[in-house]
Amino acid sequence: MAQKPSIPKGTRDFTPEQVAKRNYIFNTIQKQFELYGFQPIETPSFENSDTLMGKYGDEGDRLIFKILNSGDFLNKVDDKLYSKKDSNAITSKISEKALRYDLTVPFARYVVQHQNEIEFPFKRYQIQPVWRADRPQKGRFREFYQCDADVVGSNSLWQEVEFIQLYDAVFTALKLEGVTIKINNRKILSGIAEVIGASDKLIDFTVALDKLDKIGEEKVKEEMLEKGISKKGIEKLQPLFTLSGSFNSQVVQLKSILNSSEEGKKGIEELEFIDKAISELGLQTATLKLDVTLARGLNYYTGAIFEVSAPEQVQMGSIGGGGRYDDLTGIFGLKDVSGVGISFGLDRIYLVLDELNLFPETVTKNIDLLFINFGDKEGLFSLKAIKQLRLNGVNAELYPDAAKMKKQMNHANKRNIPFIVLVGEKEMETESYTLKNMVSGEQVKLSLTELISKFE
Amino acid sequence: MAQKPSIPKGTRDFTPEQVAKRNYIFNTIQKQFELYGFQPIETPSFENSDTLMGKYGDEGDRLIFKILNSGDFLNKVDDKLYSKKDSNAITSKISEKALRYDLTVPFARYVVQHQNEIEFPFKRYQIQPVWRADRPQKGRFREFYQCDADVVGSNSLWQEVEFIQLYDAVFTALKLEGVTIKINNRKILSGIAEVIGASDKLIDFTVALDKLDKIGEEKVKEEMLEKGISKKGIEKLQPLFTLSGSFNSQVVQLKSILNSSEEGKKGIEELEFIDKAISELGLQTATLKLDVTLARGLNYYTGAIFEVSAPEQVQMGSIGGGGRYDDLTGIFGLKDVSGVGISFGLDRIYLVLDELNLFPETVTKNIDLLFINFGDKEGLFSLKAIKQLRLNGVNAELYPDAAKMKKQMNHANKRNIPFIVLVGEKEMETESYTLKNMVSGEQVKLSLTELISKFE
To answer: Which of A105, A181, A216, A375 falls between 20 and 30 A from B124, CA-CA?
Structure first.
């Protein structure tokens, strides 16, 4: 008996409508990337295992999909090791390649491998799928696209300014107005930790602070106490919990907290530069907001930290994020290359646009015109017209069989084709085309020239 | 010590220039697909192993990349089987998923799985990577893109007519003029085998005939004799070796060979229908040619067989192929769904376009304008202009640091940026922009409006 077909859990088939909507997002982002001077690269779907392993922590290592070696793969496993029947120990002997887990590590590998061909600063974007052996759940997949833009080889804060504008440009182009671009700086977090005497507890401190939105001030303080941050230190934090007002006035308040920390002051200086530039340049539809609780992948970022929230009317986590990191390529032996980058959460952006009904109608239309098939002679006559239509950019096709009229009409309706064309004996004699609007039922007789000019 | 980075053999990194050129091919093909009424689908990169295994023959099964199960994968292997240390026997116990080997089997799986949502005839296209554990060699990769268009659920010969026009439309749009679209029909090959009394040796017969171009008439006859085809049968083939003249006159000669085979006559009838339609419709730059030696994947095809050759001045194998198959979805339990489809050989098309210098220059250009950075004030002034340029569709950027002029000019040259803009004190005072042509060295002072209208 034939198998009942299915796909692996956590993966998806995309229907024509879904592909069209996804491509609309990809193309819109891509266009803005290119206006901003970013260039595309692509890396292989699988990398050598040692390129990926050890770069994402133990949990990451477990979630990387490993590819089984071809041929007699057990041949390479010595009998002693084999006899232990230890999955962990045997993996590296029977698998040398693994599927990409994100785009960042392959990008770092690319930069190091191609460093002599690359002109720095190098602005690249990359839109490709990644794979993670995560437990599948709502909105979390084992195969999904990432979409990253990064600049490497430049310490300039203009890059941060550009990325904020780029976020604004992309979401404006997607007609998703009212997103909030939150910004913070690792140096500010370090500065605060220093001021409250918790420099050695930076991670614990930021993990707790990051929860302010969710659990509130009191619980955050409790957690900090539990983690060993002194009561006196926590008291110094008080102004943080009540930061308010404009970006600028918040910065003023932060300054008073951080006046004894060089690193903190540096962070403030960076924020001020960025805020001043963005104020002067203006954003089209997004808002820039200082959020001192924002930490994201703190170990990773060394300067600016970004996160984008969807407009308030939508319940959705962040739809983008990024920041500056100072040693991306060090893991592959190229030191002192500063990078800064952002990413877009494509699956979530898709959900937001769908919920707010922001996909343009034209995105999912397929063909404009279906020619009804009345037989071989009529079919050939129709295909000649269709050829001219296509040469003028009009999507058109002939129903493939001289089936019953009703069946052909049904086909047009099921595919949401807005117009059909009827070509019978009479039309062929007079070289005319009867165009029927499938919604209104209205019919009109046109010459080929008229038909083309109506749709091109 | 840091690892020296590399990628697995048979895979490729694509540089910005290569991605741009590949995207040009993808986009051009995609545009024609949509004009012809094809809709995109996408399927997961990996399928359940039992979806793929057994569909491509033993050799195919070996070349499929298998994904190792996550977690303690050896736990599921019983000790008795484990003790045999037999790679083949253990594979299905430690691997349940595998990377896509082509787009055809996943498409068949998709059609069966989604049959209730699909409106037939279903015209789909798919452009995605596939993976094969083949021995890497020149022009053969372990990861490469396939690009397929198929119609399922229609027996109409108009589909064959449409596919020939589609090939012509795509290669014309790519400016690759002079390709030859070769056509044959499985029924003609079966008919000939029947006439010469070798119906049971159809494969041997066609494999030998397929070599006519390479080894010549005598050797082909020798091989047929060796394979047990009778001398008398081979004599009846004589007219085949001297087939000449127009498509139509070759058909007349074929008819005389095949007048005793019903199947053969049916094949001729199909060819004649297609040839007549194409003659009436005309092709833009391609030529349709009958090639009775064309067999391709004969077991697979049941009607028309297509293959496209690059223009004669280029040494290259086929750059496309396809045909009609009558039971694509049967393997997954959906019977009697006829399909016909074509594919494009993307890597070879890339090589041909490169060799003939057919990529438009605009494909690989990145930004139009680099603003030289003279400091923070000038930078901000420049970014305001850049914002306006981008809103008008002009790719522009600011050099991120106020580095030495020479360094910034070098950067523009290395990235092949055609124009730079100089904004210093004077320009800021007069709200003007000095535009410098990097090739001619010519300089001109413009207002922002003039600058925009020059590049938009």
So the answer is: A375
